[in-house]
Amino acid sequence: MEFGDLLEIRDILQYQHVIGAVVCLGERPMRYGELGSAITEWTGNRIGDGEITRTVRRLVDSGLGAETFAEGHRLLILTRAGRRRLETIRNLGRALHRSDSHARDDDHRPRPLPG
Questions:
Q1: 78-52-57-29 Cα dihedral, nearest 10 degrees
Q2: How far apart are CA 81 and CA 97, in angstroms?
Q3: pLDDT tens figures, 31-76
Q4: Cα–Cα distance between 21 and 35 in angstroms, integer?
Q5: Burial of 97 (0-12, 13-18, 19+ CB in 10 A)
Q6: What does the alpha-carbon distance between residue 96 and residue 110 come to, in Å, rounded to a whole number?
Q7: Are 38 and 30 in contact (CB under 8 A)?
Q8: Which of 35, 43, 45, 63 is close enough to 30 for a disulfide, judged by CB 3.0 to 4.6 Å?
Q9: pLDDT digits (tens, 9 = 90+) for 18-36
Q10: CB-CB contact of 30 with 40 (8 Å)
């Protein structure tokens, strides 16, 4: 692992609701309220209106998301950078699951007897 990889992981994990927004917007564009509900459902923790606003601001300011209008509604979408970040998040999740399954496999392997 390179040092730059660790910095990217730190950036990804810095704000949990931004992670939630990226994952949820990976499914489809959403309005603010929909995004708040989706993040709440994904994390299991209610996200307040103020936190939704801060999350959207962070998402847009970081270049991961953008606002667009469709049928009179303001929608949030992932940018190209946001889709790359989503793929990185998914890869991290897959790596964690592989690591967990290997650890469980190791727990069930016969151990040599002492002596």
A1: 20
A2: 24
A3: 999 999 999 999 898 999 999 999 999 999 999 999 999 888 999 9
A4: 7
A5: exposed
A6: 24
A7: yes
A8: 35
A9: 999 999 999 999 999 999 9
A10: no
